[in-house]
Amino acid sequence: MKYLKFLFWLLLPFTIKAQYKPTWESLDSRPVPAWFENAKFGIFIHWGVYSVPAWSPKGTYSEWYQYWLQTKQVYGNNNPKPTAVFDHHNKVYGENFSYYQFADLFKAEDYDPDAWAKLFERSGAKYIVLTSKHHDGFALWPSREASKAFGKPWNAMESGAKRDLLGDLTAAVKKTSVKMGFYYSLYEWFNPLYKNKQYKQYVNEHMIPQLKDLVNRYEPDIIWPDGEWEQSDTLWQSREFLTWLYNESPVKDKIAVNDRWGKGIRKKHGGYYTTEYEVGATFNRPWEECRGMGFSFGYNRNEDIEDYNSAQSLVYLLLDIVSSGGNLLLDIGPDAQGKIPPIMQERLLQIGKWLDVNGEAIYNTRSCKTTVQWSTGRRDWKPAAGMVSGEAMLKQTVNPDPGFAVKEIFFTRNGNTLYAVTPQLPEGKFLIRVLNTSAKTTVQMLGLKKPLAFKKVKEGIEVTVPKLSVKEVPCEYAWTFKVTEVI
Asked: Which residues form the signal peptide (predicted)?
């Protein structure tokens, strides 16, 4: 009996799961769930009351419509006129039309969450992040706190749509293999409590109850906070919330979170790190770049075809990010009727078609010590300041300015298999540098059945690519060479 008691106490530390404490040292010790680092490609969805006016100057965020309107200031690319949204609103809707009246026009009458979910699967995305509530405070689910705070119907169930938009999409996505996540703005521009600096009451009676309601009711795979920058993580009670999330919540074993938990916290604490409309980032922790297909996250009907990134540049952007160890969270902005604009659908399907052939080089991979192979020339090309278009990747791959180098090959790795992805289709012999092969090494282009001939040379391996007919070329934009048994 004494021996059994001794054995019980000996094994007890291994039978009780470690509990996280409300300190960054403890919380940061929790690994980012492996599924997130394996996913590589996700879809951001900005959808809300701002989808009704769906307008802002080019190069700015249309989902900030209320802020642009009520403050008479706009900022972003192209030096927008400060009163541009205010002037537009008064011209189209009249100066007495309140932003809050858009809630009755946000009806989502054409919304088909199952069709959305099928599109996401076909795109090759492994997770989505939907705006449960943006900075205007409007909730896409029947949030009691949202309507109470504003003293009027201010959620999708009680206003125009009369529907749990978030819940319906969650149910549809959970029928698929795609993971479901929620964006949540910690602050709200014009919430009466927040605006009057009743911060403690705002957090305790509004923000924390809303967050816990989202988690308990829908059990997401991601919580993606934003709007954190005005206040400290202490005021937001971020560490206390994360302690509950990791220790007690129904998603404690699977949930992934980002780094937007308080002023000065980004790229220092939290889960995975985030960037926004950037190129060239790299970190020693899982990370994610988020951006729209144009320059807005919410649907902006003011944008034209030239404002949208091409499918080619989006594939190169994905390659650049994944080869550097990150994920791409690519945004779409549905309209107020619940339709995803056709150009956005097209881009997602084009990426999905490329991933059908080359997904092996993306999913479940990790970055290599050498992330890219450069051509000769200068490597210091920089895009213009501001939000960087994905089209910048064309300058770094297939359309460089005179004298500048290009990224000839992007590298990813899965165990002893290396993937070398080329933005230009090689023909004849081409060199993959700095590569240690073994006697068992084989080289194959994904999408072609036959292995390719190669030989070891001083700089690496020289691969022979046969001349391919139009029908034989397996995909567009970029081509993957799978090199096995790499040492």
From this structure: 1-18
Residue indicated by tokens 């449960």:
132
Could you give the CA distance from residue 457 to residue 411 in angstroms, rounded to a whole number? Answer: 19
Of the options 3.20.20.80, 3.40.250.10, 3.60.160.10, 1.10.10.10, the CATH number for the domain spanning 24-361: 3.20.20.80
For residue range 324-378, what is the model confidence (pLDDT) as tens digits? 999 999 999 999 999 999 999 999 999 999 999 999 999 999 999 999 999 999 9
Contacts within 8 Å (CB) and 24+ apart, 453-461: 457/431, 459/431, 459/433, 459/434, 460/431, 460/432, 460/433, 460/434, 460/435, 461/431, 461/432, 461/435, 461/437
Cite the residue boundaries of each domain of the chain with CATH code 3.20.20.80: 24-361
User: For the chain, where do the domains classified as CATH 2.60.40.1180 start and end?
Assistant: 366-483
Cβ neighbours, 10 Å, residue 380: 7
Cβ density class 34-44: b for 16+ within 10 Å, e for less: eebbebbbbbb
Neighbour-count burial of 276, counting CB atoms closer than 10 A to its CB (0-12 exposed, 13-18 middle, 19+ buried): middle
Query: 388 falls in which pLDDT band (50, 70, 90)?
Result: confident
What's the alpha-carbon Rg for the chain, to the nearest Å?
24
Regarding beta strands 479-483 and 443-445, do their DSSP bridges make them parallel or antiparallel, or are they unpaired? Answer: antiparallel
366-483 is classed CATH 2.60.40.1180: yes
Residue 452: HSE in the Cβ half-sphere, 13 Å Cα cutoff: 26
Q: How many CB atoms lie within 10 A of CB 286?
A: 19
Asked whether residue 60 carries a pLDDT value surpassing 80, the answer given is yes
Say whether 420 sits in a helix, a strand or coil: strand
- N-term to C-term CA, the chain: 53
DSSP string, 206-273: IIHHHHHHHHHHH--SEEEEE--TTS-HHHHTHHHHHHHHHHTSTTTTT-EE-S-SSTT-TTTSSSSE
By the 8 A CB rule, do 153 and 159 touch?
yes
Mean pLDDT of 228-232: 98
pLDDT in tens, 100-148: 999 999 999 999 999 999 999 999 999 999 999 999 999 999 999 999 9
